[in-house]
Amino acid sequence: MQITPPFGYKEVVPVLKTQRLRLPGPGELPPFVRGSNAVPLSPTEFQPAGREFPIVFTSNDNGKSFAPVAVLGLASGENLFVNGSGWSAGVYVPAYLRRYPFCMARVAAPAQGEAKQGEEQPRRLICVEKEHLDEGGEALFEGDKPTERWAGIERLLTEYEADLERGRELCAILADYALLEPFTMQAQLPADKGGEKLNLTGMHRVSEKNLENLNAAQLKNLVRKGILARIYLHLISLANFARLLERRLAAEGPK
User: Fold this and answer.
1) Domain positions in the chain
2) pLDDT in tens, the chain (255 residues)
3) What is the pLDDT of residue 198?
4) Which of 197, 191, 231 is nearest to 74 (CA)?
5) Which residues does 169 contact at the CB level (< 8 Å), separation at least 6?
6) Do residues 43 and 233 make contact, with C-beta atoms less than 8 angstroms apart?
7) How far apart are the first and last CA of the chain?
């Protein structure tokens, strides 16, 4: 059985009832977050995340599919929401980070019947980052009965995975309606901050012009599926690039 770890994870293994795990302490962040200038978002998160971060769409397969992400920094490897004490106080923490070290992994299984080798199964496995296995850690099951803490973790994972599926549908419809267009964020720091030119690429946004040209049936479908509201949240959130620049300037201090 092959398990492909999601972005930021190193090696994941299925969660077993007999395992003991080292769970993150209060405020502890995933190791990868400090060097991540974007993290995945689900549609339900557009409203709380859109108050803090620009929400854009990215593609890892040359435009065949897209995914929404929250932009956390203006350069590769930059996260403007992490400081010495952890995540910035009072700022929304995306569910992708809150679920760590757990995830719902897609599984490539051996061929069975008419299935092809490596074909993805429709079900998902609850997995954990392997380095969090710890014989001196916390048990999540008492025999076959899940602990109260595990019940909460499992609920978060299940609800988040279901929301990610809705996100995939949202992006597929945006692409099918030709609503996504590439764009670049460009800015220049003031001379007293070094005068650096910033150029953030690889992002897509909804084209307002193309949105206006949709027919009545397409608009009705966007409304019915709750996508139109997410589009407006996304477009409004783009103003947060200015807030990222302000954070960058405040963090750098005078030159």
Assistant:
1) 24-100+140-252
2) 678 889 999 999 999 999 999 999 888 999 999 999 999 999 999 999 999 999 999 999 988 999 999 999 998 899 999 988 799 999 999 999 999 999 998 765 555 555 455 455 456 789 999 999 999 999 999 988 999 999 999 999 999 999 999 999 999 999 999 999 999 998 777 766 666 788 889 999 999 999 999 999 999 999 999 999 999 999 999 999 999 999 988 877 655
3) 81
4) 197
5) 225
6) no
7) 53
C-alpha to C-alpha distance for 64 and 6, rounded to whole angstroms: 19
User: Locate tokens 């005078």: which residue?
Assistant: 254
Angle at 203 between CA 96 and CA 89, to 5 degrees: 40
- What residue type is assigned to position 207 of the chain? S
Looking at residue 241, its amino acid is F
Q: How many residues does the chain have?
A: 255
